[in-house]
Amino acid sequence: MMPVVAMLVAGGLEALVGEPPTRYHPVAWFGRLVAPLDREWRHPLVVGAVGAFVLPLAAAVAVGLAVATVGTQSALAAAALAGLGLFLSTSLRRLLGAAGSVIGDSDTDIAAARDGLLALAGRDASALSPGQLRSAAVESAAENLADGLVAPLSAFVLAAVVAAVAGAPTLPVAAAAAVWVKAVNTLDSMLGYRTKRVGTPPAVLDDAVMWLPARLSALALAVAFVDLHSLLRTREWLDSVPSPNSGWPMGVAAAGLDVRLEKPGVYVLNPGAALPDVAASRRGVRAVGVAGVCSYALAGLALAALGGVTVWF
């Protein structure tokens, strides 16, 4: 049952702390390791592929070994360390706060809203209208539910299941898997742009890793909106979104709120509706929060069920 304890530690830290300051955050430290790759290379695809393989693996191995070492002394301490690793691999509270701030400023201080959007989305906000700023905030909250929470949570659970079946230590493997997914996503967020050939391998890897979490996030959002039909409506708009994954949670948000969500010049979701007003945008952020809590709860229940099955056999 120690993976359940780790999940409780991660969820408790998320509720109480949110996230540590950037300067003390291990993800920021990992970003410093990635930064030297962001330049012109003679063979950018080779460099990108090596970086995508080595850097996430190194982070995962380091965390897995740390949890395993602590576990030789205390199972509870190992669960606490694994929970800390999972907590540092996820993000929900800061995401909801940043999206809420952009929405709140969108009608009163558009300059502040445009500045705040930089914490959420890597897009030029200088010419965005208030409605487009709110759209970007809702889109980013929905997309980052998958990237920042569901992906590491699902990796933790799936790795725990695989480790239990294989007879391997569950906590080190599960914690390593969550950290690996977060590292892959960080690489993609820093390098995965069409203008950066070195970022092509990390982007392809991230697309593969995020296939299931994006769809699980869409399902969680549909439940939060109490609107499973939104999943069907989302399929109508997916062709306009370049990413094979992000359109799912964003599309469900557009359908669940019955608003237009758009990235100008790139995609439009629910084109027949109006851009979100403040009230609709806040409902969208609340739905992301509900979906996040549900994701934690379902992950915990899955681990509890795994523990029960393991004890039974």
Automatic annotation (TrEMBL):
Identification of the protein by name: Probable cobalamin biosynthesis protein CobD
Biological-process GO terms, alphabetical: cobalamin biosynthetic process
Function of the protein: Converts cobyric acid to cobinamide by the addition of aminopropanol on the F carboxylic group.
Keyword line: Cell membrane, Cobalamin biosynthesis, Membrane, Transmembrane, Transmembrane helix
Native organism: Haloarcula salinisoli
Subcellular localization: Cell membrane
HAMAP family attached to this UniProt entry: CobD_CbiB
Membrane-spanning segments: 42-68, 75-92, 155-181, 288-312
InterPro entries with a match to the protein in the record: Cobalamin_biosynth_CobD/CbiB
A GO term for molecular function: threonine-phosphate decarboxylase activity
Pfam name, any one: CobD_Cbib
Pathway involvement of the protein, from the record: Cofactor biosynthesis; adenosylcobalamin biosynthesis
Topological type in the membrane: Multi-pass membrane protein
Primary location recorded for the protein, binned into one broad class: membrane
Family assignment from sequence similarity: Belongs to the CobD/CbiB family.
Signal peptide coordinates: none
GO cellular component, one term: plasma membrane
